[in-house]
Each structure stands twice: as C-alpha cells, then as structure tokens.
Write a sequence for this structure.
C-alpha cells in the first residue's frame, strides 16, 4: 500500500479528504459535537471518533467545552485549535504600513501601524516591513518564526517577468530591482505579493458583498482609483499584473492624459479620483470643505452629500455618480460581470444613496446591467484580504493530513 499512498481512492487520501472536510466545517460553524460532525460529513460514529482523535493528536483540533444546555446528554465540543498556525498580512501605502497577524481560525490576534511619511523614507523598505510585521507579531504575543506565511498588499503590481513594481510610482523605496530578494533574505516565512485592490476583492469574496459570486468587479476609490476583476472565481491579474489599473483609462470629460506612468494618473483618475472631489465641490458652490488628506476630505464630502436631498451637496453627489459611471461603463461593457462591488472610503461613504445614483447612470451608459452593491468589509479591507489570502494557503498546507 505504501507505493500507492498518494493516489486518489487510497485510505490515506480518503482520510485526508475527510479530515479537511471536518476542519472546514468547524471553521464555518464553530465548535461541534462528534455526532454533529458525523452527520454533516456523512461519516459513521466510529469513523468520526477516529477522525477527531487523529486531528487532536495532530494539534489541529481541541476539546472546547461541552454541549450543556442543549436537549439530551451533554457531549464534548470540538473546535479548530487557533494556535495550530498563524498567518500575517501587510497593507502598504505611501504614508503608512498596516500589519496584522491572524490565527488559523481567521481571528486577528495582533495589529500594528507604522507611519512612513515623506518622499524619502526614514528607513529602508526592508526595515519598514520587518518593523511593521514585528510590531503585529509582538502584539499577538508571538515571534516572527510563528508566522507560517505573509501576504503583502501594495498599490500597483510586481511584474512576474522582472520582479519590479509597476503602476505605482508614488510608492517611495519600493522600486529597487533587488527588493524582493532582500525581503526574502530578511523574512523566515514564504512571502507573497498582491495588488491592494485585488486583496479588497478577496476580502469581499470570502466574507462580504461578493460571497458566492464567481464573476464580479470591485471598483475601489480611496487614495487612488482602481478595480479588481474576478472571472470564473479567480482573480484576473493580466500579463504584467496591471489588469484593473483603471485610473489610467481614457474617458470623456477630461483632457487626454499622455505619459500616464510618468504622471501616475490618467483620465478616469482625473475625472473621478478622490483628489477630484474637493475641486468639484468648490466648483458647485459647496462651502463647508474640511481640511486634511484629500482621500479623507473626499470621503467626508461624499458622506455629507449623501445626507442632502437638494442643493450644492446633492449636485455634488449626482455629478460624482455620473463621473464614476462614465469609467464603469467601459469596464462592464468589456467584462459583463454579474456584480459590481463599490469599495474604498470615497465610495462606501456615499452608501446606498450613491450606489443608487451610480446604478441609474450606468443603466443609461452601458448595455450590460450588473447589480451594484456597496462593499461590506469594514475597517481595512486590503489588510483583511491579505490575511484571508495568507490563511487560505496556510490552511491548505497545515490541514493536509496526508503528508
């Protein structure tokens, strides 16, 4: 039997499949009794008992109490052992790096934020990354060696053929050709890199507005304007990682932007990006414009405008919705997605009011009619997506009992 242990249908593979099914059920439902696990998996009581004993011995599940208070005699409750493994995520922007560590169940157990202001970083990027990661690891009461995998989300994307960051000239220090090698040498765990908006889409697909959807677009508007494309259940990244860099999209309503990578902007960014909202507000006669970083100012203006039914604020929201729909019309005409998720602070701030206005405008501008929804992942969607991405691979490795 040893020679065929890895082939489908053999006892080891079938046991591993049952083990993974049980672990996934425990992640989804929380603590369960042996009887309930048996019913949900279709396994007999003796087989379910053997399975749980095997997972307990492997350090993957633990007894977490009893089912007292329920009808019938009390029984032991089994749960995934949170300490079986940990994964980490980083959300990188020009001004700060957010880091978090999650246990294998997905619960965030440590967070840290490192300010990285200015065009000339005070620390080299490798030091910034390790400082941020170590801050979250320390907050979790762990060591760096306890982290099974790290996913780093950045604007733009690392070109698979060159290993260099593209589409994000505004991220100081991240463009060195040796950066990925330096990070690999400094960090003891496997590291993956993903576009920040793609990670927001991962978060929405795993536990938000896109749950259960295989074809959707996530439109993001915060510091920059971008999109994530999920086709057939998979992220579409493009040949160089640039799929979804819609800020560069030429659109009517703005002058044609040339040398877009040098400008780090394009027509859609100029028309509907967060930096355009305060300027538009002034043009329309809005007087109570707050001060601060433009993305925060834009989100505050959009939130305030959503509370007005008439006047300059309402006109601001309607004009902004038309501008958003202008670029979105090109996206949905090419992709015909089932769903469009509006995410990032400058879109979620407008809530259902802005969503309804964009949906109505899109119906006028595009033949395809996807459903628009507001993103449901609150807090920091990019960081949540980084954790979810790191956890997915970690679980595939740690939960594989056939090894």
């Amino acid at each position: 039997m040893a020679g065929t242990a890895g082939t489908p249908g053999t006892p080891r593979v079938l046991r591993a499949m049952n083990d993974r099914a049980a672990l996934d059920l425990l992640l989804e439902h929380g603590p369960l009794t042996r009887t309930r696990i048996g019913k949900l998996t279709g396994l007999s009581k003796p087989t379910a008992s053997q399975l749980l004993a095997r997972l307990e011995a492997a350090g993957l599940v633990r007894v977490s109490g009893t089912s007292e208070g329920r009808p019938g005699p009390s029984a032991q409750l089994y749960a995934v052992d949170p300490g079986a493994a940990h994964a980490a995520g980083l959300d990188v922007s020009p001004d700060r790096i957010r880091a978090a560590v999650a246990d294998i169940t997905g619960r965030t157990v440590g967070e840290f934020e490192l300010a990285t202001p200015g065009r000339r970083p005070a620390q080299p990027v490798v030091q910034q990354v390790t400082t941020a990661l170590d801050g979250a690891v320390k907050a979790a009461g762990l060591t760096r060696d306890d982290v099974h995998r790290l996913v780093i989300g950045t604007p733009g994307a690392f070109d698979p053929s060159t290993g260099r960051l593209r589409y994000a000239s505004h991220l100081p220090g991240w463009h060195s050709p040796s950066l990925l090698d330096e990070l690999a040498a400094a960090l003891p765990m496997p590291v993956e890199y993903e576009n920040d908006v793609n990670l927001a889409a991962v978060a929405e697909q795993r536990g938000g507005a896109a749950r259960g959807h295989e074809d959707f677009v996530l439109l993001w508007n915060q510091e920059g304007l971008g999109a994530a494309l999920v086709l057939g259940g998979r992220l579409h990244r493009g040949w160089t990682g640039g799929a979804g860099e819609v800020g560069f999209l030429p659109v009517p309503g703005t002058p044609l932007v040339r040398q877009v990578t040098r400008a780090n902007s394009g027509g859609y960014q100029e028309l509907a990006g967060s930096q355009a909202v305060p300027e538009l507000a002034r043009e329309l006669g809005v007087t109570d414009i707050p001060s601060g970083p433009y993305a925060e100012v834009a989100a505050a203006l959009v939130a305030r405008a959503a509370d007005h039914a008439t006047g300059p604020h309402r006109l601001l929201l309607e004009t902004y919705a038309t501008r958003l729909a202008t670029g979105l019309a090109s996206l949905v005409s090419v992709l015909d997605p089932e769903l469009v998720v509006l995410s990032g602070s400058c879109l979620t701030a407008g809530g259902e009011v802005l969503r309804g206005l964009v949906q109505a405008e899109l119906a006028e501008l595009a033949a395809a009619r996807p459903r628009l929804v507001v993103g449901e992942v609150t807090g920091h969607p990019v960081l949540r997506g980084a954790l979810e991405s790191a956890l997915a691979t970690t679980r595939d490795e740690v939960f594989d009992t056939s090894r």
